[in-house]
Amino acid sequence: MPKNTPSITKLRKLRVKLRKIVSRQKNKNITVILLSALVGLIVGLAAILIKQIIYAVENYAVSFFPGYLFFVLPMIGLLLVTFLNGNIFKKLVAFKGMQHVIQAIENHQSFINIRLIYAKFVTAGITIGFGGSSGMEAAIVTSGASIGSNLGKSLGLNYQLRTLLIGCGTASGISAMYNAPIGGFLFALEVILPEFTPALLIPLLIASATGKILFEMIMGENLRFDAHVEAFSYESLPYVVLIGFVGAFTAMYMIKTYGFCYKILSRLNNPYLMALIGGGLLGCLIYIFPALYGEGYVSINRLLHGQETEVWKNSIFQNLNIPFQGLLILLVLLLLRPLSTGLSLSAGGEGGYFAPSLVAGGISGYLLYKVIIAVSGPHLDLEGNTFIFLGMAATFACVMRAPVTAIFLIADTTQSYAIIVPLMIATTIAYTFKNYIDAHHPLTKDSHGPLQMEKFILNQINLRDIIDPVDTFVYTNYTLRKIIEHFSNHDHAIIPVLNSQNEVVGIIELKKVRELMKNFEQYDSIVAEQLLEKDFLQIEYAQLRNELISAPELIKRNHVLVKRKENTIGYVSKYKVLNMYNQYLNHPDRLFVK
Fold first, then answer.
1. 559 in helix, strand or coil?
2. How many CB atoms lie within 10 A of CB 499?
3. How far separated are the first and last CA of the chain, in Å rounded?
């Protein structure tokens, strides 16, 4: 074993000292506030780093290759990412951002691999820098969550506080990356954490504000969309309703397209072949339509400033001279954007659907604006930027399943608080309509969903508090009289039944025995084999938490016997579980304060 270097030894000593300081701190609220600020600072620096990585890769790739070879850039990027994921980051490939952060909270006690702090920086930076049409928010969400988780782990914090720091890391990352402190705060609440309680308010706000302040101090204000809406006329409300439906349809098209790309490319069963073909197709799309390169925010900013023709500059559509040229080209761009994202991510690239949903939503909103103007004439008092922002919010809400975040993220990012009411209306209509469609067409549902409260509570419960020990058994040939004696001598709701080989073959419930106690004449004629129930499960103690978290309904449907090294040591008490649930749910700060 190699000896520890002096730097590693010093870090370990520092960690031990910090653990002691945290454990001795009597006021836990002060500790949480300080840690949330620390997470915000670290994640703010991470956001700066990932942004610089992507810009550096993009600038180098674009300057190195002449224009006529741009179409090979995505292929090279995807091949590089595939190589890194297959060799250096092999154990981290499966971790894909927001949904896996939620799974880590639910199924892995909020422990996240420390290497994820930087791994997704590299792979997302290469994917997007070489032209992949995805978003870098997946990398910052993963990195922020890993920073929060590992800081909590290093300081010996419990499950609740580790989860809180994961939320702080996520809030800070989105806040810094999009200059949207309210949006980052709400994103953590709505998507990552199970629900709002007062204990969450201050730490998340501090982390979100800290990340944003640090990023802005170093990088400048750096607004994503450098235009905003000053006012809104309520005479335009009918169009707001229409934008809601357009946003919902755009989101459904995007989700369908992503699924189609994954279904086709996954049939190749070879990651390098997937990267080669997917990257080749993506490169061809970019060569035909350069606006598909990277995240796509450049196209939105051009539309916001009325530079519509700049969107298709250097594309094959540049010199077309046909009726309704702008409408047709924007429609093509809208149809191709989700396809380019699907190819990028299905072919092995890294990134998220956050940015693509904003870009596609903005294009669909602007396209609707152009259609209305073409049909009704320019005399209408409508502003294209309003349609862009409303389309972004409506589409984002449906794709990311975060309607509240969508409203304030767009208002924050664009500094357009004048349209907060229409944002609410468009987002509500889009989200409600998509949920209605999903409910009537179950095959259209995706797997993404919020953290389940049942799983969150099960992670916090001490297993010993819900297990009733078993110190007695009955055999299949025992009479009802002997069974009653066993129940009278032990305080159990159920007793396991053994066969002649001492194997558990069923259980007998106390309530069933009570029903028979008045039939004295049957005490010696009824045997355990006639009374036993086979509706039970046996689970190893070491696997009990994972089994219950993966399927909380097991407790409701079955009797769960707990064994250790093939010996039954107890059973999960439904009464105790219910009592624990009630204690957590009735506590005003149930999630993070005991």
1. strand
2. 13
3. 42
Tokens of 531: 């009374």
Q: Measured between alpha carbons, how far is 324 from 343 in angstroms, rounded to an integer?
A: 29
Assess contact for 308 and 223: CB atoms under 8 A. no
Tokens describing residue 211: 């990340």
> What are the structural domains of the chain?
25-219 (1.10.3080.10), 234-269+290-448 (1.10.3080.10), 455-590 (3.10.580.10)
Cβ atoms < 10 Å from Cβ of 482 = 15
Average pLDDT over residues 516-529: 80
Query: Cβ distance 30 to 157 under 8 Å?
Result: no
Q: Tokens for 543?
A: 């696997």
- Is 534:505 a contact under the CB 8 Å cutoff? yes
Tell me the whole-structure pTM to 2 decimals.
0.80
What's the Cα-to-Cα distance from 197 to each of 148, 168, 193, 451, rounded to whole Å? 19, 14, 10, 15
- Residues 570-590 have pLDDT tens digits of 888 777 777 777 777 666 555
Name the nearest CA neighbour of 511 among 467, 574, 553.
Answer: 574
Residues 6+ apart with CB under 8 A from 419: 229, 232, 386, 389, 390, 411
